[in-house]
Amino acid sequence: MEIMLILTLSLLLAWPLGVYMTGIFSGQAHWSDRLFGPLERGIFKVLGINQQQGMDWKSFGIAFLLSNLLLGVIAFLLLMLQHLLPLNPDGVGPLSWDLALHTAVSFLTNTNQQHYSGQAQLSFLSQSFVIVTLQFVTPAMGLAVCLGVLRGLLGGRNQATAQEGEARDLGNYYQDTVRAVLRLMIPLAAIVALALSSQGVPSTYQPSPTVSVLEQGQSLTEQKIPLGPVAAMVAIKQLGTNGGGWYGPNSANPLENPTPLSNLIETIALVLIPIAVVFMAGGMLRQRGFALMSLGVMGFLSLLCVAAAVYSEQQPNIAFAELAQSSGNMEGKEVRFGTDLSALWATLTTQTSNGSVNAMHDSLNPLAGLVTRSGMLINAIWGGIGCGFVNFIVYVWIAVFIAGLMIGRTPEIFGRKLEKAELSALGVLLVLPSAVILLFTAITLSFPALIGNSNPGLHGISQVFYEYTSAFANNGSGFEGLADNTPWWNITCVIVLLLGRYLPLVIPLYIAGMLAKKRQIPPSAASLPLANVTFGVTLLTVILILNFLSFLPSMVLGPIGEGLAESHIETISQQTSAITTQLQSVTGGAQ
Amino acid sequence: MNTKPLKTQQLNQQLLKQSSQRQTPAAAQTVFNPQLQHAYWRPALGLAGTMLLCCGLLYSVSVTAIGGWIFPGQANGSLLSTADNSFTGSALIAQPFSAAHYFHGRPSSVGTDPMSTGGSNLAPSNPALRERVAATSAELTALYQVAASELPVDLLASSGSGVDPHISPAAAALQLARVATARGIQHSALETLLQQQIEGPQFGLLGEPRVNVLLLNLALDQQFPLSK
Fold first, then answer.
1. Of the four listed, A185, A206, A415, A438, which is most buried by Cβ atoms within 10 Å?
2. Which residues neighbour B118 within 8 Å (Cβ) at sequence distance 6 or greater?
3. Which residue of A has its CA nearest to B60?
4. Is A393 inside a domain boundary?
5. What is the mean pLDDT of residues A235-239?
6. Which member of B91, B137, B164 has the closest CB to residue A335?
7. Together in a domain, B17 and B56
8. Which of 323-362 (A) contact B at CB < 8 A?
9. CA dist., res. A512 & res. A510, Å (int)
10. Interface membership of A151 toward B (CB under 8 Å)
11. Distance, in angstroms, between B187 CA and closest chain A CA?
């Protein structure tokens, strides 16, 4: 019930937002120019570029990579030197080089995988200056690349004048990025941050107060309540598909997510922009039908996963069998949210490449564990801002190719042919996730000294697989029991993060740039329509088959195996319960 | 190599001039010249600098200041204190309770320390979780003299944060008799107090019904002070 309310609200809010985004990125005059124009012109003076200057795919890609590199270096240095910089009232020390590198790269890639422990290892400056900035800029950069790809699909902004084979104008990377930050992210984040403050999310630069405990005479007599400029960060953490929270347990912590209302706001914020991007794509491509088809495919997969996860968590945790009431799995969950809202969040956060949590994923039942991993592996059900829709377009290209083979025609999309160069690049994108994730999982598993997992058996394998999947999908959630702040984990995750961020964005940009140059064939009866149910179902099948082929074996070793093993545990649990009853009579007798 | 970026810059400036000359108020025309695509370092550096200022400084500071100004209580950790300031706490953070005359909260895998919050991170298949739950279950069935199948799950499952301030109404109801006996008060009187402390779903719609253990115990101390 509440789940439907949250999903409907998200959809209803994403629609006008998508229209607004189309307005600000389509290059037409827009009412927001009056508000933001002067500030933007100032910024472009500092940048020293003409914001109307178009870029072809190469310059677009180089600008993207170079601005990432510089931002990454600055973030790394600021993190290494945080103990020497101001705004450090709790006297936090420096990070080790590998942890600083991992943290900088993880936030730079819009992943927000955290191997540090928030409030204890980062100063206020690192959290609210370095990390908040990356949380704003990186989704904007992803969105810029997505816009470049979308413009390429229609032949670029100079489509009308350019000759066949001539370089195409994919827009200005800097203009897109700056506009996304100023006109989209900052206003939304400010609204969300204030709403969260009203619910009890700390919003202060005061040092943490210490309180005394009501029942004295226990081991814990005082509590230090960690505060800070939390609301400002949590807002953009949710909106920007970032996920890196202020506190260790993220939005499960009552200070980061105090009430059901704050939970509603944070859940909507999690999917809002990723859904709006689909509406925006429809507007940018001037293809309402294509956008509706995309919305249908993503929405179907999303709802399916939500339903499975909610069902999964309503089932008892197998470890509690016969030991408590037979109700939902509350291990690692908070009473104010219960199982449904936790399962909803877990599903959406892994689909959108966000990675924030309001319950501990390590303790989810196996089916929900499967759902969360599927969301990250597919990585195109809404997906991260920009990169999610780019991944979706990659699936569309593959589906177009396969459908083209089936009906015996040269595959084409929006009148442009997919040929050998594009298909080879698509091949790289296809193999990349399984190659990277499985390779690193296998290496780590073969050296038990490196693993540092907290659970035995199949779930131990899952922890390793989950960590690399989350890194590659730029998601950032984790099975938090993993002792992951070691040089091995930090460095391998850095490699996986970089591969998972930059190749899946730059390669599609290249493909779009190549496609854009081609001659446009006018649509005819022979061309494959993309805006109907048939193509939607084909696309759905392609998405599922590709992921089954890549990851089914590892899923069997992970959550599926765990689920099967549970039937075995059940028999053990009956034996244990017999022992417990005996124990009970013994303790009862003693009293 | 050296002349090329220079040339590009000149061309760029020329274009800048051109475009500013014929700039119409809103929709400036786009310019595209694939040869003008070098000299990237300055915009990349400028982007990092301006964004650090806009997001890290302007946004963070202004939003934090406004939030703290409009909602001073909530923005500072929702702190509570008794009238005589003999006690303080946060309404959002669980405190440990073990005495018979208090209601108890949920198990915490971090000793209810708000500085190191977190869950158990034990998978359902982990024998360690099974052992822990079995021990808690035995303890609670002995304490309340009920069958294991009547124990509310939230009293056995550790919370995600380790500082979950709430328990379910059922978990509070289970403890009612124990607390009433320990304080030497009527069940019905305590029942009334408990009913007052149950928070329904927010706006009758959002979230689960729950009881804040710290607030309940504070109300308890106020209405039925312990005679010493």
1. A185
2. A248, A249, A360, A480, B109, B110, B161, B162
3. A232
4. yes
5. 95
6. B164
7. yes
8. 323-338, 341-342, 357-360, 362
9. 5
10. no
11. 22
Contacts of A566 in chain B (CB under 8 A): 124-125
By C-alpha distance, which of A344, A178, A315, A545 is closest to B207? A344
Residue A285 burial (C-beta neighbours within 10 Å; 0-12, 13-18, 19+):
middle
| Contacts with A55 from chain B: Cβ below 8 Å | 37
Domain presence at residue B228: no
- How many domains are there within chain B? 2
Mutation choice for A interface testing from B64, B116, B133 by most A CBs within 10 A: B64
A54 reaches B (C-beta below 8 A): yes
What was the ipTM of the complex prediction? 0.86
User: What letter represents residue B132's amino acid?
Assistant: R
Mean pLDDT along residues A279-292: 94
Whether B86 and B132 map to the same domain: the answer is: yes
End-to-end CA distance of chain B: 89
The residue segments making up the domain with residue B120 are 78-223
Q: Is B35 exposed, middle or buried (0-12, 13-18, 19+ CB in 10 A)?
A: exposed
Residue A347 CA to residue A334 CA, distance in Å, equals 17
A573 falls within a domain: no
Q: What are residue A258's phi and psi, to 5 degrees?
A: -75, -35
Percent of chain A with pLDDT over 90: 62
The answer to whether residues B94 and B133 belong to one domain is: yes
Whether residue B174 contacts residue B152, with contact meaning beta carbons closer than 8 Å, is answered with yes
Q: Which amino acid is at A2?
A: E
B63 and B173 together in one domain? no
B168 → closest Cβ in A335, A357, A459: A335
* Nearest CB to A211 within list B88, B138, B164: B88
Tokens of A488: 């091995």
Instruction: Report pTM.
Output: 0.89
Mean pLDDT for the stretch of residues A174-184: 95
